[in-house]
Q: What sequence folds into this?
DNA sequence: AGAATAGTGTCTGTTAGACATTATGCT
DNA sequence: AGCATAATGTCTAACAGACACTATTCT
């Protein structure tokens, strides 16, 4: 390659198109808790490659529409679910020569948490089928590409975080009871949590505020809470239950 | 885009070159502890863009040489340091339209840990200058692109991990004493650690074995240890010191 | 009143921090 | 012997787990 005196000169002669570049996509595991299960959003691919197979929602970075990687993630999320204020976290990037039949490709994975009451699934432009699938049942589906591995990485990250952060509050609706919150934590953790321990942690974290309302049912009503500072999440100094 | 009956048919007509793709690179923070400081390897860029500026070692994914993303990372590490068995961990991927003047670009960042006794810096093919710089002094250097932000992310990840994993053992030479190991932990943590607590943790983790040798000095000699299972690292259930 | 669920009190076990004490080699 | 540093003993504080107990509403 020729060298140039100034960067300006260099850039004038620079043409990206002359290089072989890997395909770059963003894929997401969008989680919600519904029917007492952790569910993930999947789409049935309408186009080649892996046409007809279930896959994580995602797609190419659109260099016109997206200013940054997370823009791509937000755009995809909005397209599939209509939700635009999820909890979003980048998980890992998978890239190699063989994961996509079109050639060397790389995908940046994110997971998103949304509350089940926000979700109204939308058929997207390419009229793909879209569905919530319990993560425990994804194994039966033979996901496209390496999406099973990607989902596993996202799921593992979420399960790790339930043990030492308040992140799962992002799966809750606007207001909720402590029992409901605990149930959500337990569903992600996959095992029951001792009630007093759980409440102590949540109280110490100081992340909730009472709404003043109560949720009544067939027995003693429960206080309703909302998240104090949405988007902030609390890190505990010790792991909870099932640790190690 | 036309549709095809079979994936084979689709792939026959598929040409990556017809798409605009972001530039894809790998950048690394290669850490070592030397002179009682955490140091990071930097290179002075020999070519545009950002010619003459210090930067993290890294570069384009070579779709011929590299089978996967981590191959690119290992290749870069080997080129700069000659080391081929580091501790390597992917940190995050940064991608946006403005971080590189050549256009929309994305970089996958890794950090590597190597022991200072393995390092023999090598000028690479493009005869870049290569140097170890204490992380505390990087601020004075005005790194190229967004490399300061990338370095910060890598540094933060390492500092977080010193609090709850045994990862820093990967900065040690083949054999070492517990006092030396503690010193390394303290350098990364940035604050002193109580000796007994530290030794209890290390003993509980059961990651070291005695070599049988002693390191003698001007006073009582210390037992020498080596890592039991290189590559494995231990996760503690509670954070150490300085937490929160 | 009794059922059912919400919410609290309190004991135990584990482990990190503090700091005193002992151990061992050198000059 | 005395110094310097390695290694250990032991007390305390913080917090998670266990589980019994109390509180409040409904039927």
A:
């Amino acid at each position: 390659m020729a060298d140039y005196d100034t960067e300006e000169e260099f850039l004038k002669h620079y043409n990206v198109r002359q290089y072989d570049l890997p395909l770059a996509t963003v894929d997401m595991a969008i989680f919600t808790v519904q029917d007492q299960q952790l569910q993930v959003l999947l789409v049935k691919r309408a186009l080649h490659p892996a046409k007809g197979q279930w896959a994580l929602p995602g797609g190419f970075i659109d260099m016109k529409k997206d200013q940054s990687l997370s823009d791509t993630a937000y755009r995809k999320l909005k397209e599939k679910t209509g939700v635009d204020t999820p909890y979003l976290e980048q998980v890992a990037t998978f890239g190699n020569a063989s994961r996509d039949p079109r050639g060397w490709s790389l995908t940046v994975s994110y997971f998103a948490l949304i509350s089940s009451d926000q979700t109204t699934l939308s058929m997207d432009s390419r009229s793909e089928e879209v569905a919530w699938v319990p993560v425990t049942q994804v194994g039966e589906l033979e996901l496209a590409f390496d999406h099973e591995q990607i989902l596993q990485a996202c799921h593992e990250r979420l399960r790790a975080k339930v043990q030492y952060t308040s992140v799962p509050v992002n799966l809750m609706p606007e207001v909720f009871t402590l029992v409901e919150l605990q149930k959500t934590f337990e569903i992600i953790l996959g095992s029951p949590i001792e009630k007093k321990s759980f409440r102590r942690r949540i109280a110490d974290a100081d992340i909730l505020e009472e709404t003043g309302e109560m949720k009544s049912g067939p027995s003693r009503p429960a206080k309703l809470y909302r998240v104090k500072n949405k988007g902030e999440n609390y890190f505990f100094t010790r792991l909870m239950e099932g640790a190690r």
Q: What stands out?
A: Chain A touches chain B through 47 residues (CB under 8 Å). The longest helix of chain A spans residues 147-162. Residues 194, 196-197, 200-201, 204, 214, 216-221, 236-241, 243 of chain A lie near DNA strand D (CB under 10 Å from a C1').
